[in-house]
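Quality-control log, excerpt.
Job 1 of 2 completed; input and output follow.
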Amino acid sequence: MSLLRRLLGSFGTAPDGRLQVTYAATADGREIRNGLERLLLATNSRVADDVYQKVGSIAHSIVVTLPEDGSGIDRTDPNINLVRQTALSYLPEALNAYLAIPRVYAERRPVEGGRTAHDLLMEQLTVMDERMHEVADAIAKNDTDKLLANVRFLQERFSSSQLVPTNALSDGDVMDDKAKIV
């Protein structure tokens, strides 16, 4: 297997020479991160810099949102599902559709309302990027809210305690080097 093939993993070239940008569905944040890295590598020389930067921003938001080992996430959370779907479906599908068009046409030939395929892709990527930033912020806020709730719980639990700590040793007692269990 060639070095390029190993780097691209499940990315490859279709018989007609188009780049195929797909990777398998997974719940593992590490696999998603690796897939996004391969996606960035595979598209780097195939798209304009602004497209590449936007894809990188989306990928970054996804990676910081999903824990590497998949632990600690609520799989029923619609925000988590949106992040996963964006990584596994929406982003690769948008790039596949764009990459099927020769770059010179995609960047120069108007296709709808005077906009090029490049313009249309950038609109899609901008929507994804904004939503991924919103979701990342919402998830971070939710995590922060959980932390604050725990702090309030602990403050309430320990501040209203009627127990008064006392010193187990009297002033004259001396403890030797060995721990004692009473």
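Job 2 of 2 completed; input and output follow.
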Amino acid sequence: MTNAAAGRLTGHAAIDYAAGRGLVVGKYADPIEGERWGLTVSEARDIAAKDPGLIYLDTLDAPAVRPGFHLVPCPGDAHDSPYKDGCGMCSPRWGVVEVEEAYRSWEARQEAREAQADAAEDEGRFRRQIAALATEAAAAGDTAAIVICDGAFRGDAECRAECRRMLAAGRG
């Protein structure tokens, strides 16, 4: 249902509109609960299953997110003060700004690359520790530890776990 004069969508139309644009919706007050804003699409669907007339979305107050963009928290300093009632960065969406999907994708790829580099560095450090442990075991004639270190180098999960335990215990 749509109330074009007020720029308000209600019911399943509001939910579908919000779902396609990454928006949140509101709920009118009912005898059980007061009015709420900021419902996710899944919360709104649960409520609409019982009474779709409770769900609304003001399209004038919450303009659509343009294709190829998503919403992120606004970095503006107006949000740090209870005395400011406007922000030039996020107006008319108080608290969120549009960011291009390409930027988010680049950011996600960059984070993945950094995580891979960290994992490779951790693996290299662990392999050096295993080598030191194997050298210490060979000098002490500890055949069992040498076999465990060899298994850890080959990637055996149990041997790697045992090497981690030995390293945590102060060996190596």
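Post-run check on job 2. DSSP finds five helices and seven strands in the chain.
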